[in-house]
Design goal:
Layout: H1 2-8, E1 15-17, E2 19-22, E3 25-29, E4 37-41, E5 44-48, E6 54-56, H2 85-98, E7 107-111, H3 118-127, H4 143-151, E8 156-158, H5 166-177, E9 179-184, E10 192-197, E11 201-205, H6 213-216, E12 219-223, H7 235-263, H8 276-285, H9 295-313, H10 316-324, E13 330-333, H11 335-342, H12 348-352, H13 360-376, E14 379-386, E15 391-398, E16 423-425, E17 428-430, H14 433-442, H15 456-464, H16 475-491, H17 496-504, E18 508-512, E19 515-519, H18 529-540, H19 544-560
Parallel strand pairs: 1-6, 7-11, 7-12, 8-11
Antiparallel strand pairs: 2-3, 3-4, 4-5, 9-10, 13-15, 14-15, 16-17, 18-19
């Protein structure tokens, strides 16, 4: 009788996993034996034992630490293999997004070679929001297993993926933005079981694990550098130090969540990106974050541009479309005519491959899938019906200067790939390196581009005394630049001026599995990434071989360093 009354006559409450929202406040289940939770409001946070919302706990859930006030998010840095400041901001942003009860959530993709702490970084991040007895999982065998995992935990994390299959890519997109899955109930003929979830996701792997455009559009992609052997720690020591720092780091995250609740209604972004709710939430939290206002959006937009470039470079249809519009502003015709026009820009091997569309219908489908990223790269794709016979047409229009896919990338691009088969400078074509140099000699020098940017004084001071070069916020970057400029003076003086200009402009040196490269800092000198790419083509590409040699020498210098190992601590 009592069981029947409880089941049918008692009040019904919604049940949550780990995180919930109620009356404008966020509640986080600490999952400890005393059923304590954290209550976060716009004025602060506190630990409570009588929580107004109901939580469920699955078998694998582990308790979060008792948060401590007075912590600083910078304490987290020493536990993460962070390549640069932008990556640090994006990792913190993912954590803060994961502490919000409502999605959509960005998909965090950690990529790097063996020994880059991908798994350790994934575990540390998850331990701050949803610790679990099995923090990292293998690739699920089907969507049903994925949804069961999501139903029984708050965060979903996958370890050491070798690419993401199409079905899983689509399923992760649905899970990140909110979606459902239904299947027949076991031992029933006409009943179905429905799973519905929206969850934060981490995945790591050595390869470029995501290739589908819709997943890349929702992703934060961070490339982790390898950790030098002299800086490695044994796991017992690492996790002991992390557990000691975790309560204060968790408290600092809660401070930022409280700031987000306080400011979210007043946030206004001039331009909303694909994950608009995520962008607004992190911007609202910036009051309590260790970087200037607007720093997150700068890092996030740069990361999105990189994702777009990766997607376009890996799509042979997009590559052919971009090459088609190198010589014209607009192209219009049927899908059959477009297929014929694009085949001029591919070789026979590509044409015979399964990746190349074999008929006009497949080409149209491929263009629809890549249209979003092409639009952000300056190419508009329109599908039209014109004339009395309503003939189907495709119109390709170049809105801005379209960069060749072989041009310099914003991030993680080896200088082996920075040369252009047909170089474009100031809107003019140059078919060989000598012609590029001639055009450079007739144009402004690298330093003259600084005159209108308010940076010439800094350059002149640096020209008189190298130690007056404005230092960057990262000690490792300063040390790398010191070595590179010294090598340039000694071995390739012609490359010294553009390299020094890049340093003053805040450009950082990055290394990936593909080699060394430059990462733009959008700000004083480069207003957009297009400015950066154009500048690289004009002033750096002519010195391509020299700078490649300098990067090789830089690598030798790093390998020979036995002192001050903290310089290489990432």
């Amino acid at each position: 009788m009592l069981e029947a009354k409880a089941q049918f006559d008692g009040p019904e409450y919604p049940v949550f996993t780990r995180i919930a929202e109620h009356d404008g406040k966020i509640y986080i289940d600490l999952a400890n034996d005393t059923w304590e939770a954290v209550e976060i409001s716009p004025v602060g946070w506190r630990v409570i034992s009588d929580c107004p919302v109901k939580f469920r706990r699955s078998k694998g859930m582990l308790p979060l630490p008792h948060p401590e006030s007075g912590g600083r998010l910078e304490e987290l840095k020493r536990f993460l293999n962070i390549p640069d400041e932008d990556s640090w901001r994006l990792m913190v942003a993912w954590l803060l997004a994961s502490l919000r009860p409502k999605g959509p959530y960005p998909v965090l993709l950690l990529q790097g070679e063996q020994g880059s702490a991908k798994s350790t970084t994934s575990k540390a991040l998850r331990a701050l929001i949803d610790p679990n007895t099995a923090p990292l999982r293998t690739c699920p065998k089907d969507e049903r297993d994925l949804m069961i995992t999501a139903t029984n935990s708050w965060a979903v994390s996958f370890d050491n993926l070798s690419g993401i299959p199409v079905w899983l890519s689509d399923a992760l997109c649905r899970l990140a933005t909110g979606g459902g899955f239904s299947t027949r109930t076991l031992y029933e003929n006409d009943e179905e079981t429905i799973f519905s979830a929206c969850r934060p996701i981490i995945a790591n792997g050595i390869d470029e694990i995501a290739s589908r455009h819709d997943l890349l559009d929702r992703a934060i992609i961070i490339h982790l550098p390898p950790i030098p052997e002299e800086n490695r720690k044994d796991e017992a020591q690492f996790w002991a130090e992390f557990e000691k720092a975790r309560p204060k780091i968790f408290g600092a995250l809660l401070d930022a969540v409280s700031a987000g609740l306080r400011n979210i209604d007043s946030v206004h972004l001039d331009k909303l990106p694909r994950m608009a709710d995520f962008a607004k939430w992190i911007t609202a939290c910036e009051e309590a974050l260790p970087w200037p206002s607007g720093g997150f959006m700068e890092a996030y937009m740069g990361n999105r541009e990189e994702a777009i470039e990766v997607a376009l470079e890996g799509d042979i249809v997009a590559v052919a479309v971009k090459n088609l519009l190198e010589e014209r502003e607009i192209w219009e015709g049927t899908a059959s005519e477009l297929l014929e026009a694009l085949e001029v820009f591919i070789d026979d091997t590509t044409k015979r491959s399964v990746a190349w569309p074999k008929n006009p219908r497949n080409l149209g489908n491929r263009l629809r899938r890549v249209a979003t990223f092409l639009r952000q790269a300056g190419i508009e794709v329109e599908f039209l019906r014109e004339g009395h016979d309503r003939r189907r047409l495709i119109r390709l229009k170049r809105e801005n200067v379209v960069r060749n896919v072989r041009n310099v990338r914003n991030d993680l691009q080896s200088f082996e790939n920075t040369g252009l088969e047909v170089r474009t400078i100031c809107g003019q074509r140059a078919d060989n390196a000598d012609e590029v140099r001639t055009k450079n000699e007739n144009s402004l020098s690298a330093t003259e581009t600084l005159k209108d940017k308010g940076l010439m004084d800094a350059y002149n001071k640096a020209d008189n005394a190298d130690d007056k070069i404005p230092i960057q916020s990262n000690d490792m970057q300063n040390h790398l630049w010191d070595i590179l400029l010294k090598l340039a003076k000694e071995n390739h003086p012609g490359a010294y001026e553009p390299l020094k200009t890049l340093r003053i402009a805040g450009v950082t040196l990055r290394k990936s599995g593909k080699g060394w490269g430059f990462k733009a800092k959008i700000g004083d000198l480069f207003n957009t990434k297009q400015d950066f790419d154009d500048w690289i083509r004009q002033y750096v590409t002519p010195h391509k071989q020299a700078i490649k040699d300098l990067f090789d020498k830089l690598e030798e210098e790093i390998n020979n360093v036995n002192s001050t190992p903290e310089v290489w601590e990432l």
